[in-house]
Every structure is written in structure tokens, then in C-alpha cells.
């Protein structure tokens, strides 16, 4: 099973999201082709009701502990309750461009 599929399955099982999207953003980073190391997760769930944002992130980290310890390098999380999602009108910020690894500007080192 791919890393993306594992992330999707675990978060679906644990949080029963109403809206859910996992995007593999590894291609935008200094990693080999077909890598699964950088992901962006947008997830809307009633499980987040009453939880501060930090606790939501911690919950996802707990669920994905194995994946974070074994291959996932970066995980951008956009976690909403139903009301927050409606208020945001489904808007999720774009991920910044990566300047790490071989793409780093030598003048900034």
C-alpha cells in the first residue's frame, strides 16, 4: 500500500471526515521521482469540535505516528470543523515553494 493510501485509510478510519483530501507534494521538493515524503492534508471532521488547533494537529500526529517515523518528512495540515469549513468557503492556502536541498539558493547559505 502506498504511503498516501495509508494516510488516507488511517485518517478516514479515525476521524470520519466529511471532506478529505490528501495531496502528495513530494514532486515540488528535492527528492527522487515517485517519492512519498511531503503531503498536504485537508480534513473536515466533527471530531475536531471543541479542540484547539494545536490539539487537532497532535491528534493527527498520533494517528500517523508510524508514517511520520518511517518516511513522511513533511505534513501540511488544514483541519476544520464543519462550521469552520463553511466559514472558510472551502479555501485552503497554497503550499509555499520548496527551496531546500539541491534547490537552495547558494547565496543564502
Structural notes for this entry:
The chain has a single domain (3-108), classed as BolA-like (GMP Synthetase, Chain A, domain 3, 2-Layer Sandwich), CATH 3.30.300. It contains 4 helices and 3 strands. It has helices at 3-15, 53-63, 65-69, 82-88, and strands spanning 19-24, 38-44, 74-80. A 3-stranded mixed beta sheet has the order 1-2-3.
Secondary-structure blueprint:
Elements: H1 3-15, E1 19-24, E2 38-44, H2 53-63, H3 65-69, E3 74-80, H4 82-88
Parallel strand pairs: 2-3
Antiparallel strand pairs: 1-2
Keyphrases for this structure?
GMP Synthetase, Chain A, domain 3; disordered C terminus; alpha+beta; 33% helix; 109 residues; three-stranded mixed β-sheet; 3 strands
At a glance:
The chain is an alpha+beta fold and 109 residues long. It has helices at residues 3-15, 53-63, 65-69, 82-88, and strands at residues 19-24, 38-44, 74-80.
Order of helices and strands: HEEHHEH
What do we call the CATH topology?
GMP Synthetase, Chain A, domain 3
Low-confidence regions: 103-109
CATH 2nd-level architecture: 2-Layer Sandwich
Count of DSSP strands:
3
- Summed up, the helix count is 4
Number of domains: 1
Alpha-carbon distance between the two ends: 38 Å
Q: Structural class of the helix and strand makeup?
A: alpha+beta
Order of strands in the sheet with the most strands? 1-2-3
Mean pLDDT: 84
* Radius of gyration using CA atoms only: 15 Å
* CATH uppermost class: Alpha Beta
| Beta-strand percentage range | 15-25%
**What is the percent of helical residues?**
25-40%
Name of the CATH superfamily: BolA-like
Shape: globular
The profile of the biggest β sheet is: 3 strands, mixed
Amino acid at each position: 500500500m502506498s504511503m498516501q493510501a495509508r494516510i488516507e485509510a488511517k485518517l478516514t478510519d479515525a476521524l470520519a471526515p466529511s471532506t478529505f483530501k490528501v495531496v502528495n507534494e513530494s514532486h515540488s521538493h528535492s527528492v527522487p521521482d515517485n517519492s512519498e515524503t511531503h503531503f498536504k492534508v485537508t480534513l473536515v471532521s466533527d471530531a475536531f469540535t471543541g479542540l484547539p488547533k494545536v490539539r487537532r494537529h497532535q491528534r493527527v500526529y498520533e494517528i500517523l505516528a508510524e508514517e511520520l517515523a518511517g518516511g513522511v518528512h513533511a505534513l501540511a495540515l488544514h483541519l476544520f470543523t464543519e462550521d469552520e469549513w463553511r466559514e472558510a468557503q472551502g479555501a485552503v492556502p497554497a503550499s509555499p515553494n520548496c527551496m531546500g536541498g539541491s534547490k537552495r539558493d547558494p547565496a543564502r547559505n
